[in-house]
Structure formats: structure tokens, C-alpha cells
Amino acid sequence: MDRETREFAESHFRGLQGRLPSKVSPTPDRVDFIEKPDSFSYTDFFKSYLLPNVPCVFSSAFTEHWGCRKRWVTPSGKPDFDHLLQNYGTPLQRTYSPCPCTSRPTGSTSTGTPWMWTTTVSSTWDPLAPGQEEALRDSHGGLPYDVTAPEFLESHLHPVLEVTQEAGEMVFVPSGWHHQVHNLEDTISINHNWINGCNLANTWRFLQQELCAVQQEVSEWRDTMPDWHHHCQVIMKSCSGINFEEFYHFLKVIAERRLPLVKKIGPGEVRCSEDSGLGPQHAIFDISRIAEVLASVVVNPDFQRVDTSKFLPQPEDLLQQLQEALATTDPL
């Protein structure tokens, strides 16, 4: 990230004046197709798609040199199950299980995931801009299994947007976009989900909503259950995989990796960089986003009920470190 891109990004968030983007986003008329890697930089992606939170499709040229494009498929372009079974079927030693499952199936023809970057074979995507999914909920707040079912195809329910992804192409699905995927052929799907400075505030909002939902579900025991607020955090973690305590530790880990990059430079010394790696300008941007979110976290009534006595550093101290680091950087 260069200085101009950082200025562009921070201007975007200043325009929000501390508010989060609208919960309901308009559906774009089209999804951009990015064809040539040589003429498309990280800055282009950051400014045109990551920051405004809109989808795009990367051509197969971006994954042309990926080993899986050659080793995981047969000459006819189908998944090479024999190769996959021989090389990945049974781990030499199981040292870590990221989720409570015993298998990760590939997507056979005509299968799909009701709500999901596929880089081998073809799939169709039906993405919904943030907030559009609300029109599809049933009386219990649940979402349909298949948004392409006849009863959901009326335009007043959600604008129609369909993306066909060919073998080797990548679909960038922005934060908060519900999406349904239908595999047109046998498919190996590679997915990567990540939190970044652009969607950090959205993540914090999501966690607050998740806790609120838990509190509503167990509200009848609020006055009789000892340490009710702590139990809500436990339930939230079991449902969402993270609670307020772990979110703070997540912010701390990222902040502690960014702070050294900022502290070792002085005003006027921040170099410009177009590199996609983590440079000083990107570190400053990330710290500014963490500081804004952390300032909201420390005053949140539910977070204030979390036992932070053993947190190092204390949330307020970390926030002060971030603010002091930002004060030493070049003002925009």
C-alpha cells in the first residue's frame, strides 16, 4: 500500500464519521471480470473492491501457475481422486483438527452449498448484497436452502445476480454477502476467509449482533442464572467460534504485529510502496482501524462485564499504545 492509497482509504472511513456502512447494500448491475494479472495491482483491488465491499471475478490467468491446477485434475479436467486420495487421504500424523468433522467432501455434479473461491471446474454463484437476504427469511428467521427455488425468484424478494465461474477462476465475495453456489460439474473448491482493516468494524458489529441473539434466547434465566453474562459469552463462542474475550486477543495479536513497523519509523520517513506485502503504510492503516474498533469495544457494556484482570496489556493500555503510535505518523 502506498501513501495515496492509505489516504484514499482513510478518507473513505472519515466520510462514514464513525458509522458503519448501511446494513442494506444495493445490488450491482454486473460483476467485474479481472482478466490480466500484469495490469491489475493490489492497490487496484483494494480501492475498487475490498474497500467498497463489492464482488469481482479473477480470470484463470491468476491461478495459471498454481500446482493444484495441474496435479489435482486429470488431463480431461476432472478432479483426480486417485491422486488426492494417495497424497491427502490419510494424514501422516493428526496434530490439529480445525473443526469437528471427519471428511471434507468434494462437490459432485449438481451439488452445492446453500450459503459459500472455486478454482477447478465450473460453478454458478447466486450472491446477495448485504441486507438483501432479509426478504428471504421465514417466520422463524431462517434462510431458505435454495434461493433459486421458484417461490424465491420474484424480483421484489431479491434482485437477480448470477455469476458463472469457470475452471481456475476466483470469485471475491465481499464481507456480509450471503451466497449460494451450484456445482455444474465435479468441483474442488478452495476457500479463504479473512478479516482485514476494511471489514473489521463489520466483524465487531456481527459479534454484537450474535451476542444479542444469544441473550434474547436465554433471557428468561437472566435473573436466576448465576453469572448469566458469562454464560452468554460461552454460548456465543460455541455458536460463532469466538466471543468478546477472544476478539480482543485477536485485535491484540494483529496490533502487536503492526506496531513495530510503525514505531521504527519517524515522521516523514514512511516510504511509498506498491507491494502487496505488509509495509509501513498498510500497518498504519490497520492500526487506525484497530484503534477505532477497540475504542468501541472498551466502552461496550457487555465487554465491560468480561473479566479482563489477566489481560496483558489491558485493553485501555493497548488503545493508548495505538493512539500514540498513530500520533507519530505523518498526518494526512
UniProtKB/TrEMBL annotation:
**MF terms (GO), sorted A to Z:** 2-oxoglutarate-dependent dioxygenase activity; sequence-specific DNA binding
Show where the JmjC domain sits.
40-211
SUPFAM superfamilies of this UniProt entry?
Answer: Clavaminate synthase-like
Checking InterPro entries in the record gives:
JmjC_dom, JMJD6_ArgDemeth/LysHydrox
Entries under SMART domains matching the protein: JmjC
Q: Which GO terms describe its cellular component?
A: cytoplasm; nucleus
Q: Which residues form a coiled coil?
A: none
Its recorded reaction(s) are: L-lysyl-[protein] + 2-oxoglutarate + O2 = 4-hydroxy-L-lysyl-[protein] + succinate + CO2
Q: Which Pfam families match?
A: JmjC (PF02373)
Give GO BP annotations, semicolon-separated. positive regulation of translational termination
**Family note:** Belongs to the JMJD6 family.
The record, for PANTHER family, names: 2-OXOGLUTARATE AND IRON-DEPENDENT OXYGENASE JMJD4, ARGININE DEMETHYLASE AND LYSYL-HYDROXYLASE JMJD
Q: What is this protein called?
A: Jumonji domain-containing protein 4
Provide the species name: Pipistrellus kuhlii
Q: Which lineage do the record's taxonomy fields give for this organism?
A: Eukaryota, Metazoa, Chordata, Craniata, Vertebrata
